[in-house]
Amino acid sequence: MNLVLEHTLLESSYLFNIGKSFRSYEFLGCHVLNTGLTIFNVWAPHAKSVAVVGDFNGWQDTPLSQVGTTGIWHGEFKQVTPGSLYKFAVTGPDGQRHLKIDPYARKFEKKPGDAAVVVKPIIKKWHDSLWLARRKRSNAEKRPINIYELHLGSWRRHQDDSYYSYVEIADELIPYLKKMNYTHVELMPVMEHLLDASWGYQQLGYFAITSRFGDIKDFLDLIDKLHQANIGVLVDWVPGHFIRNYDALYQYDGTPTYEYQDAERANNRGWGAWNFDLGKSQVQSFLISSAMYWLEYCHLDGLRVDSVSNMIYLDYDIGKEGQKNDRGDNRNLEGIKFLQKLNQTIHHDHTDVLMIAEESSAYKGVTASVADGGLGFDFKWNLGWMHDTLKFFEMDPLYRRDNFDLLTFAFVYMYNEKFILPFSHDEVVHGKKSLMHKMPGDRYNQFANLRTMMTYLMVFPGKKLNFMGSEWGQFLEWRDWSQLEWVDLKDTLNSKMQEFTQKLNTVYRDKRPLWEEDYLPQGLIYSNTDDAASSTMGFIRQGKRKRQFVVAAFNFVPVERKDYRIGVPFAGDYELLLNTEDQKFGGTWTKLETKFTAEKKSFHGQPASFTVTLPAMGALLIQPTKLK
Questions:
Q1: What does each C-alpha distance from 249 to 104, 257, 268 come to in angstroms?
Q2: What is the pLDDT of the chain when averaged over all its residues?
């Protein structure tokens, strides 16, 4: 090793070891140089020895050398060509030799193998500068965000059940998202994993795209094309735990390396995985570098951080009830500090990317700034809203009046965090049934309920997320091993449901009051939100401009309500935006009320009001046209 390389490696290793190397993939792992040399660097601080084995040396040990006392092992090789397979042979303090993956591998062979693949970095010529410039200028809180959550392995498949490639997905997905008027797509699973049924949540590769659907070049092209079509791209990312396999990160140098020293804290029973030691500086460098890689190298617009609750509580997992920290409570102080450091670091360099927490407790300040004691996320999934809303709509309408608090409770805490309202993959799998199948009644009433629930989602304060298939009311629950039931669209009710979703998404995207004041109390005007006796609800989404607003009225039972009065801020003329019971959407109304006149008759605290016929099991969206 020449002196310049040694000095650079020592400096990089120092930053890595103190938890301040946020692009450690630039020196750790395998790097093919223009000089013809291939360099291998790996962190294994307690190993007795480390060697590289691969198809270029007959899978025989070629030793690496220690870089001082940094814990880094280094080697330089000639005639190692891109496409070669390799692993590290790590001998631990006990003298036991184990083959291990490269934690920084950019590519792995296709399963069932898990050897890393030598690759040359792709020099991508991007065409998304206009998108990135707009992203930098915009404020996500005050923009429409309507996310289509998509599982790459089961959105579409070939007739022989083989996967679509990234190229094929791009050709079909982008026109579909444009047609349906989604603003973002959230992809899962993107990072390399071995078990299909894990959906990517038991990660193997933290810097490697999954090889199931193609290579990194094709993935980058997919992102580029989505951006050119004005569609943002989010991916799921799992910094809390990693795959159990003994040839992966587990006891990497023969001792707990990436996981906690305490075997009980390291063991994640719920996920069947190992928990990262989030307080260890080198692990922080590793994980933050992973986030930076996906955001910078792949131009992603944000990360949905999985299972945040497991990182902020000591007793979140099965069998860990009662665990306390030194202060006598159940918080994982190291995990909290890591998440704060993660979000601060990313937002320091990229103020316009989105960090989204999947956090299932009432922990305060998930989306508050770190300076104010919060975790620093941009958004948090509102799982409480999701569970209560689904429970309400799954209920026989006869009992909804007695359980109306399932809907109204969310009004109490809706501004506690900056929420995303999700109907995610977790709610349509493992016997929970699809969204459409959850709905009560016959097939017609199931679709009527689904249209009303989707409208409620779109007008309640917060950004939106829906899992694939729900947009047309697929009846079968999601199966990760086969494609969606696209054949459903030959059924009239399914195709009309898809048309309804397209229209609803358009209304949401085009009407500023539905998103520009999402996280401010003035963005919602209470009108008639607690009429449990009739199981109806009405409220107003207010835009930044006083005369821009959308009136929403809901009927949660199959009984039509004539002369239903709605209070509004101004007298004048109003028009219909959407009636969920329109015949073209699968409803029963062949003739719609489209014009309304508000008179100066106060109602529910508003100075003016008008009456409508509120459809049975339906919803109306109405906007002003000429106000007095």
A1: 11, 8, 14
A2: 96
Nearest to 160 by CA among 483, 476, 475, 478: 483
Task: Give the type of residue at 373.
Answer: G
Contact indicator for 462, 420 with CB cutoff of 8 Å? yes
Q: Which pTM was predicted?
A: 0.96
pLDDT band at 319 (very low <50, low <70, confident <90, very high): confident
> What single-letter amino acid sits at 425?
H
Residues 277, 567: Cα–Cα separation, whole Å: 55
> What's the pLDDT score for residue 3?
57
**What 8-state DSSP symbol labels residue 582?**
B
- Rounded to whole angstroms, the Cα distance separating 257 from 267 reads 14
Instruction: Write down the CATH number for the domain with range 3-117.
Output: 2.60.40.10
> What pLDDT, in 10s, does the model give residues 54-64?
999 999 999 99
For the segment 70-82, the average pLDDT, to the nearest whole number, is 94
Tokens of 441: 């009644």
Specify the residue for token string 């310049």: 4
Class of domain 521-627: mainly beta
Q: Which of 287, 319, 317, 320 is nearest to 305 (CA)?
A: 287
> Tokens for 334?
């190291």
Q: Are 77 and 37 in contact, with CB atoms under 8 Å apart?
A: yes
Residue with tokens 């003298």: 95
Count the Cβ atoms, other than its own, within 10 Å of residue 605.
10
Nearest Cα neighbor of 108 from 234, 198, 194 is 194
> What is d(CA 271, CA 262) in angstroms, rounded to the nearest whole number?
18
> The sheet that has 267-268: what strands, in order across it?
241-243, 273-275, 267-268
pLDDT tens readout for residues 113-165: 899 999 998 889 999 999 999 999 999 999 999 999 999 999 999 999 999 99
Q: What crossing angle do the helices spanning 333-349 and 281-292 adopt, rounded to 10°? A: 40
pLDDT at 383: 97
Domain borders along the chain are 3-117, 521-627
pLDDT at 121: 82
pLDDT at 155: 98
- Which contiguous run of DSSP H or E holds residue 528? strand 524-531
Nearest CA to 53 out of 106, 107, 116 is that of 116
Per DSSP, helices labelled H in 138-244 are: 166-180, 216-228
Asked if residue 513 has a cis previous peptide bond (ω within 30° of 0), the answer is no
**Contact present, 404 and 535 (Cβ < 8 Å):** yes
Query: Which active-site residues does the annotation give?
Result: 306, 358
* CA–CA distance, 353 with 540 (Å, rounded to integer): 30
